Amino acid sequence: MTAALSVGLDIGATKTLGLVLDADGGILAEVREPTKPGADGIVGSAARVFDALRDATGQSLAGTVGVGIPGLVDVERGSVKHAVNLGVDGDWLPLRDLLAARLGVPVVLENDVNAATLGAAALSGADDLVYLSIGTGLAAGLVLDGRLRRGEHGAAGEIGHVPVDPQGNVCQCGQRGCLETIASGSALAAAWPSGNVPPAQALFEAARSGDPSAVVVRDRFTRGVASAIRVLSLAVDPASIVLGGGVAQLGEPLRDAVAQALLEQAASSPFLASLDLAGRLSVVPSDYPVAAVGAAFLGR
């Protein structure tokens, strides 16, 4: 790989997306393949994507490849565990070394939300931001003063497991009433079953058409997202707050609804109003592969 090119892989439960960036961060090639579960399946899926990127660019792509993956990631060891949807649980999987051996290039491994946070920072040009990923779960990434904050145990930004309702549903983490049980894609799917249509899309369309039940569910969800933003912002006071993840495919309607919830929460608090959390809020463009871009920057 020339010094100007970098490769990022975003390994998800259903697909592996890879891309090649030029020196200016422009996307030269993009490939996606279904992800097969288990160690062999993950490595094989990544190899197919990487080989397709080589074919698409006509380059050897011999530099370091950045990889984002769900689960608990030990960056120093290059290992992952608790990536349950990928068939990786229990013992640490030395994925970095397995990928490096299969791809024939150096590899750096990172949690997918952290990788996406770096991509959001690159897109916005901000060096101080919170990236809130609203997908199956709810988690955040933090870039503070230009540095990614992982935390002592890799748990920085696990906002989804902050309990807010003692009478709420039991969360998969074992606590009750966590934000993730209110403000996540899985929470929306449970509250608004929608068949073949993505739950978030179906819910927001129904609410926009005036369905009162949909309005109640949507507002509870957006209040939950706003509460997550409020907690994160009061903890680290970021310059920018970026919404991402699968639910963020809604785009501006999601940003507008969450901004309105933030304004309502601040209406009775001059202190919160002075922080202008709604004014700091943006959403990742639906066609921008933020996690793969961030992974590519890791490789640099």
From TrEMBL:
InterPro entries: ATPase_NBD (IPR043129), ROK (IPR000600). It comes from the Bacteria. Pfam families: ROK (PF00480). Belongs to the ROK (NagC/XylR) family. This is ROK family protein. It comes from Nocardioides conyzicola.
